[in-house]
Amino acid sequence: MIKLYKIRIGEKVYEVEVEEITEKNGAIETSADSNNKQKIDKNENRSLQGGTGRSQVVKAPMQGLVVDIKVKIGEKVKAGDEIVILEAMKMENPIVAPCDGVIDVIKVTKGDKVNTDDILAVLS
Description:
Single_hybrid_motif; biotin; single chain; 4-stranded antiparallel beta sheet
């Protein structure tokens, strides 16, 4: 369904058509998708945890822009330590370590756009 909106900015009026998209008939694509970033589904997510289940995957809680990465691979972190700063709706949101561990993998770089549940890092 396409809706037509009129938006007034100062003295100018703009007409904007907006199409409603649901998971049934479409998907929202970001630049990360366009760059063929590897997506990890639930089955692959299990393989990251290995046989011991000791790895912890840190996912993006919202769609946004990675503005800073606070850790390096191999760095020890404690629960609550900042891992990534994610900008969403003009607010910077710290993404923190859910538990104590060591950074095994960092899946994003500064400037990346991420979607909800995209993997940011893996701890062990």
